[in-house]
Amino acid sequence: MWQDWWLLSSSVKFLPSQLMYLLDESETRQNLRALAKFGAILLASIALFTVLFHAIMVHEGQTEHSWLTGLYWTLTVMSTLGFGDITFHTDIGRLFTIVVLVYGIVMLLIVAPFTFIRFFYAPWLEAQVRLRAPRAVAPGLAGHVILCEYNAMIDGLIKRLTRLEIPYVVIEPDPSVAARLHGDGIHVVTGARDHDSTYQAARAASARIVVANLGDAANSNITLTVREVAPDVPIAALAAHVDSVDVLELSGATRVFLLKQRLGEQLATRVAVGTQTAHRVGQFEDLVIAEFPVSGTALVGRTIRDSHLRAVTGLNIVAIWKRGRLIPTGPDTVLTEHCVPVVVGTEEQITELDALFVIYHDLDAPVLVIGGGTVGRAVAAALREREASVTILERDDSLRAELEALGCEVIVGDAANLETVKAAGIDEATSVVLTTNDDATNIFLAIYCRKLNPGARIVSRITNDWNLEAIHRAGADFALSHEFVAVQTLLSFVLGNDLVVMGEDNDVFFEPVPARLAGALLSDSGIGGETGLAVVAIRENGNLISNPAGTTELRAGAELVLIGNANQRRRFREFSDSD
Description:
With 579 residues, this protein is of the alpha/beta class. The chain folds into five domains: 2-131, Helix Hairpins, CATH 1.10.287.70; 145-253, NAD(P)-binding Rossmann-like Domain (Rossmann fold, 3-Layer(aba) Sandwich), CATH 3.40.50.720; 275-355, Regulator of K+ conductance, C-terminal domain (Alpha-Beta Plaits); 367-484, NAD(P)-binding Rossmann-like Domain (Rossmann fold), CATH 3.40.50; 506-577, Regulator of K+ conductance, C-terminal domain (Alpha-Beta Plaits), CATH 3.30.70.1450. The chain is built from 21 helices and 21 strands. Strand 16 (457-462), helix 18 and strand 17 (478-481) form a beta-alpha-beta unit. Helix 1 (2-24) crosses helix 4 and helix 2 runs antiparallel to helix 4 (91-131). The longest helix has 41 residues, at 91-131.
């Protein structure tokens, strides 16, 4: 009983706020005026039919009917009840009855329900939905990330923030959209993005970081608005154009990220040019993570044990890339022609690894870049900084001058044309980089280039992460999406770490040593075999032990530094909790 009373009282309290919301909305006021006009027309019609009823009855000689009888007759006929106790005897009266009946069917049975739903009931429901959208974050919230727009990229960032238990809130100006996001479990606050009250409600002054992730002009406005409320909060602004960087920095942005340019730079790092050396993927605390190609070296065909890499450099191969898959390794893993091993160690150890490749010839063949857009130009610029020869195949001739200014050879034509691709040097290219913004085109080109040059290393950009498997099946050795690079870039800024881009959905992270494995040797733990994760280091009592040997004992309270994806991390936690 008390629950029913509580629900009733809550509804009564909620009713005034709904009415106030309805009356405050200009569109809702227009709807109510339209509903009032329909009501006025309906009442006027009833009055007119009542008057005509009396006029026709007088014409027929039936003078005993009152005005109330006329109203009664009009309503029964218009509502199609038609009791039949009051009738006309002439054709003109019957014709009038038909007109009133048809008018009543149209107005009361068709127009009235539609008008009521369209101009009152639907706005009422909309008001209920909009009022569910949160207007402010919880009091006392601090250390959270404020995201200025929800999209696919931000959804990926939210998933990682949730795994790291970092609070966040999304700013959404439309209360209906905010209510839907709130219903989907997204932490959201509704309010105008260019109004300081919104950021006060989101507690921007206590936030860890604000991410301005709209267009360049909107981001500049957001940055200025946030600075009014929170002068010291770090602001990460995303920019689409190089010319916008200075404007955003002058507006108050702490860091400005050109994500397409960063994507191009990351794609370029996966291309082997010049003297074969290890590519530094990134740094995790004191550990340097690097990849190196084995193609054309004496390591091809050897097992990791037979390579003696650990004895010579102190490095250990923790995983290998094979057509976009990061695969854990063991001592008996064979290094094939196109695999790319991943090693972890100090900068000095990586330098010693580089010294092993000095005896191998320079890779002086041009790199073929297909697509001369923003990402393609970023790839070319990064490769030219490494003094690589670059040939760009671009369909749009208007970009020729800009591409040639980078010091690249430019071939204008369709990449689907065999003669054009051959003229661009597909036969001699050691690496091909696909940078078009269409996944289907890149998949097609990956198949095409792999057929024309089976030995080339193919690196590709993708737009949608669900096409990752397809691009690797098509023949690409490595692929990165704009969304993944954006998420990793923002996450590294949130955490204050250096950017580490392993590959799609692969991260470096800490996990505590499971209680069930305490006292076990690393080689006997089954971590790699059961979960697919690679153990790259162990942190214990503040000390970081890189490349732990299989004979290393896992102790309670220590932390494992692992490389892998979200599914492998989930399997590790299930593995840790199992008996």
